[in-house]
Amino acid sequence: MLKTLIEMLSGLALTGKYIFKKPITLNYPEEKPIIPPRWRGRIVLTSDPSGDERCVGCYLCQAVCPVQCIDLQSETRPDGRRVAKKFDINFARCIFCGYCEEACPTYAIQLTPDFEMSSTTRSNLLYHKEDLQISGTGKHPDYSFWKVSGVAIAGKGKGEGFREKEPFNFRSNLP
Predict the structure, then answer these.
(1) Which of 12, 85, 110, 128 is deepest in the core (most CB within 10 A)?
(2) Each residue of 67-77: pLDDT tens digit?
(3) Do 86 and 71 touch, CB atoms closer than 8 A?
């Protein structure tokens, strides 16, 4: 009986401690929370400065995803560029870990601070390439993978790109 009374009084004391303090509750739709700069939210596919898509369909994002929520298929265009033919993300499974962004060699996948993606049906959480593609360059505005990759494409041979070095002959180091 005494133990119950002490527990009840300690609970009332805790309530009394916070009863006169200002509440920290936000009225969410009207008041937006302050998002930290490194927040991992909605995933987008960015474009390079020339407007072409950055994704080269290398499958690294799909391989590193711990919940396997990325579905990717690639194709090679007539000009020699390899691009993602199909790029789907199931946000019902995504845990927003950011591994896909870290694995991407072309900065095509980027996580934005957008967190308002809720839906009442699971089928609305399957985003296709068209839903993920944005027209901007994202966090890396001057980076263009095809200009520095060392890959020959239409209009540019190996080593002829912007700030691109001549291909290195690794066999010259062999005995």
Answers:
(1) 110
(2) 999 999 999 98
(3) yes
